[in-house]
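A note from the maintainers: we've had questions about how concatenated examples are separated. There is no special marker in the raw files; a new sequence line simply starts the next protein. For clarity in this README we add a label.
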Amino acid sequence: MTRFEQNSRGSPPTGVFIQSALDALTAHIAILDEDGVIIGVNEAWNRFATDNDFSDSNSGIGLNYLDICERAAGINAEEAPLVAKGLRRIMADPRRDFYLEYPCHGAGIKRWFVMHVTCFEWENKRRYIVAHQNVTELKMVQVALAESKQQLQAIFDNVMNGIVTVNVRGVIESVNPAMLQIFGYSALEELIGQPLQNLLSGSLQDMPASKLIEHLQYTHNHETTGRRADGQDFPIYIALNPVRLGKRQVYISIIQDITERKRMEAELLEKERLRIELEKERELRDLKNRFIAMMSHELRTPLASIMLSGDMLKVYGDKASDEEKLMYLENIRVQIEQITELIQDVQTINRDSGPNGVFLPEVKDLVTYVHSIVEEFQLTHHKTHVITFETSLDELFTLFDTKLMRRILNNLLSNAIKYSVQGDTIAVTLSNGKSRARLRVRDHGIGIPEEDLKHLFEPFHRATNVDQIPGTGLGLSITKQAVEIHRGKINVESNTDADNHGTTVTIDLPVVLE
């Protein structure tokens, strides 16, 4: 028999049964008599006393529990008097019970217990059950949850973005302090219970709650206009997502005040606009300078020649033969045509069509036409360059403007001759693919530096390696315009390497029949 059994006055079978039942419990249990003396304990109490080096070898049996509590010192000194006070209250009124949660930490270990004291009758005498239940695991979970809640609350209270919770009817249930700052309210109560629409402006303000929630859930761009407490509108970003809280469906919305971002975006746009305007102004200034330089250079030679021929006629007209007079007049006519052609080139780059301001396409054989232009250049330049024409086509009828096509070929062949040394070969090829004609002109001239290729089609721009070779910088610009009028594409590949220099211009034109 244990001490509890020895002190119990029931029959041995009853005492054994009660002791066995108490020993099976995990709680540390002690039975007190009417004076508070410990008259029995269970096995869990014994183990706890042994594990914690309790000074009494009988685990406290025979000691007054009230005295132990009132004299307690150390770790549980604060809770012990509360236990004694609660126990005396039950002794005074047996109908009551006493409940206390308290820490009981040991060396390197944290523990929490729940103490429960109740009164019962045994053989017409009042007895008290003191049960200490270890709730450390539950308490650790509670502590972790509390810490997590504190962390979440700290984030909720200190985050810069507004956080608002609304129910399925769109009514605000909670907000964080940032919402007050963003919308200019002074107390949380001013927002709680209000419809979410009160925070919005424009069409969203008049939208039914269900439609508004659906709109905010599934619309990708959530930038809209909010309305502050003073009625002032301002730009916001709002996102809304559904959340299940138990059996309830709620929606959590994140709101950002994007006033500063919009201001910065506006500043960037204004800076970009000014940059573009300044860039255009610089380009126009450069264009003007190139135009003036080109005109002064290209006009000087023909004007000087015209002046010389005029002076010769004026001074020696009466002595010159008719043949000499015709020579001077022919020179004046040729120089005037050169100036006229230069002016037409300048006019062409400002038009949407050919030199005459109109696009007059007709169906012709492109093979025959290109061949005829090449033959003209072969006849004119046969002493200085070898110009070849290759094609596997017998004919290729398509729609093109003959004047513009002549301008394209003239510019490409003239450039190839101008920037190639005497004796070089200039190859012209014509082929066709799926619904297109490909015209290619290749030379072995000085080539175009890589840094100039990106400016190649700009009016008046000339490559940096042309030196004193005459030119206006308009040829390729006009060529590109003429190609694009035909809905074609032009591509230039060039190399300035000593072993592999030269330029290839490829033009793709759609094959179109009326």
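[label: protein 2]
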Amino acid sequence: MRVAPVTLESFINAGRDIQNHPTALSIKTEDCKFRSFFGTCPEVCLDVWNRLKPYDNVHVDSKPKHLLWGSMLIKVYATDEALSSLAKADEKTFPKWAWKFIVAVSDVVTDQVIDLENRFRGDIGNQCKLSLDGTHYRCQKQKKSLT
């Protein structure tokens, strides 16, 4: 069985379908939306796909949307019911594929891509270089109510 090659457009189009906007937006808006859903850009998704070789390491029926489902589960971290609705997938199908890709990426790609020592490159001591299980947000000072 011959499979069509996966390209950057494959991830862009799969992302648009999940985000429910079939037409192109401005580059900046499209990048922002893609990152808000999947935590990364289509170029990184394609790189991960190529390193992963999912037809060999995950399943012969793997599709770019399945990698995006795994990324979306990690990024958005909503219930399977909510995410399967976004993905237009069955509530059993979504977590099956999402977790296959999460595990595969963890097993195969992490060793090839992540080198914790690289976090010190160009360091001038003014930024946090590692956060584990952290939530980062700006705290607004509450104004006192007049009532």
